[in-house]
Specification:
The protein is mainly α and 117 residues long. The protein has 4 helices and 4 strands; from the N terminus they run H-E-H-H-E-H-E-E. The strands form 2 sheets. The protein has a two-stranded parallel sheet with strand order 1-2. A two-stranded antiparallel sheet has the order 3-4. The longest helix is centred in the C-terminal third of the chain and has 12 residues, at 82-93. The radius of gyration is 14 Å and the shape is globular. The relative contact order is 0.18. The protein binds a DNA duplex (13 and 13 nucleotides) through helix 2, helix 3 and helix 4.
DNA sequence: GACGCTAAAACCG
DNA sequence: CGGTTTTAGCGTC
């Protein structure tokens, strides 16, 4: 046992990340950095790792999380390709438009609430 | 444009 | 169970 079986096979850190992303409303997007900073972490990469192996794929709107450069970032374990295209289309369906693979309106960025967590 | 840092998970032994 | 490698990023040079 790799001591990582806590609840459903997710570590406490992953739960924090999922909880943070879960509170992201539709039509809004957050950056990995914002989520990482909210949970008290300095590495956005750790958040990406948790999302990549997320056991709650449809439960957690990982597609609402984008890179700090306002790029789509990665999706389905790929930084580019059809996966990213699908992510762009999905966000567009939620009202978030992208231009040249980048967020068109920065106002769609989700503003973290301190009382939520 | 290239390099380095960082933090957690997955993989291998 | 321990150690090593890779990663859906970010920041800086």
């Amino acid at each position: 046992m790799r001591s990582r079986e806590q609840r459903g096979g997710v570590t406490p850190f992953q739960r924090e990340v999922y909880d943070a992303i879960r509170m992201i409303p539709k039509g809004r997007v957050a950056t990995y950095r914002q989520v990482a900073a909210m949970i008290g972490c300095r590495s956005a990469r750790a958040v990406g790792q948790a999302l990549k192996r997320n056991p709650f794929a449809p439960a957690v709107p990982c597609h609402r999380v984008i890179a700090s450069d306002m790029t789509l970032g990665g999706f389905q374990g790929k930084t580019t390709g059809s996966a990213v295209t699908a992510k762009e289309a999905l966000l567009r369906s939620e009202g978030v438009f992208f231009v040249d693979g980048r967020l068109a309106d920065k106002g769609r960025l989700w503003q973290p609430s301190a009382k939520g967590k």
